[in-house]
UniProtKB/TrEMBL annotation:
Biased composition, class Polar residues, residue ranges: 21-31
Protein name: Uncharacterized protein
Cross-referenced InterPro entries: P-loop_NTPase
Annotated segments matching region Disordered: 1-43
Domain of life from the UniProt record: Bacteria
Length: 110
């Protein structure tokens, strides 16, 4: 009978979070009083100067997130040939001797 009434859980929790938090380590304040308490102003200035020198470096390549790219609105490009060709690179391909060069010459002199 004593064996059935005995506590069957482990006396020590296997994980630190399983045992609960100690009340003696409970902080008195949840928000810091001063800004300088965690990060002194000199450190902020050093960080700002480091960022400025990194941006001014000729090898610096700015990164842009995909969300910024999707949200960016780009202006329209004026057409080279109204309703047909816009500025950029096009591949004009086809079988040999079907008139590709002739068509390009005609478009160039329009």
């Amino acid at each position: 009978m004593d064996r059935l009434q005995e506590k069957t859980t482990a006396p020590y929790p296997p994980v630190g979070a399983d045992g609960g938090q100690s009340l003696s380590q409970k902080p008195n304040q949840s928000i810091a009083e001063g800004v300088t308490e965690h990060k002194p102003p000199e450190r902020d200035l050093e960080e700002i100067l480091r960022q400025i020198s990194r941006v001014n470096d000729p090898a610096y390549l700015p990164t842009v997130s995909m969300n910024d790219l999707y949200e960016q609105v780009y202006p329209g490009r004026p057409p080279v040939v109204d309703g047909l060709l816009y500025a950029g690179t096009y591949l004009f391909v086809g079988a040999p001797k079907v008139g590709k060069s002739f068509l390009m010459v005609q478009l160039a002199f329009m």
